[in-house]
Amino acid sequence: MGGHLVAGTLVLNGPASTPVLYMTNAGSLTFDKLDSDTANKAFTLGDNALLDGQLVIKEAAGSNISGAVGIGINQGIWNLLLGSGRALGTGTISAAGAGFVIQGSKDLTGANAFSNDWVLNWNSGESALYTFSGSNSIALNGTVTGSNNINAPIINNISSGKTLTLTNVRINTGVNADKFISIRGSGDTIITGTVSNGNEALIRGLTYTGTNGVNTNLGSLTLMGSNTYNGLTTVTAGTLRVGNNSALGTGTLVLNGGALSASDSVTARTPVSYTHLRAH
To answer: What does the pLDDT average to over 116-142?
Structure first.
């Protein structure tokens, strides 16, 4: 039976342990913030089989919440509504399980953005869903890395007029070849920094799938950095915006749908293969 629990500060104590938080019933669990009596505290949001339960954290965590953060272990999606990009502390966030859905109760940008590094490392690959949604912009100022030989999918369903902004992306650090990072959804995503291979000895690619609408493409991906990845850039729906001559890395651009746009005068030296092409 679901319910709603509203509490103040959740204090994660103990010098050696890594606390694990579970939700066993649908409903919502709300805290003002997380804190600890131990420096560099790490914690894990454990397995969660609930798709409709929600964890709400209103404020930035205390300064002792600076260790690694695990989201999921083997299964379940965590639904998080956060009032600060520092609500989970400042340590590296490693997401496993079936993933997460993160919303901001306000814009999580600027001084309120996430400073954490992110590692997406679910073994079963595209069964894991790393989703950002809601009606407020979210910015990830740390590095986002795909790991564990998955093709990491990032889904942006944030409302129109708001954005998901990523800084640096490392596509995959695993040892298997031909991996890619996939960005999907109806929202507008901007990558301001560099998209790199992660494992420089292997081929890494980027795929983008927006949402097909009636006579239009919903969603966009804007690449602003001088990118170094060497695999395919594949577009199947939505609009891919190219911000400079090196934005598409060194591999081939494959257009299987969607639209291609440049934010300025751009001369891309990338080979192009297309089934359907619409430029604007």
So the answer is: 83
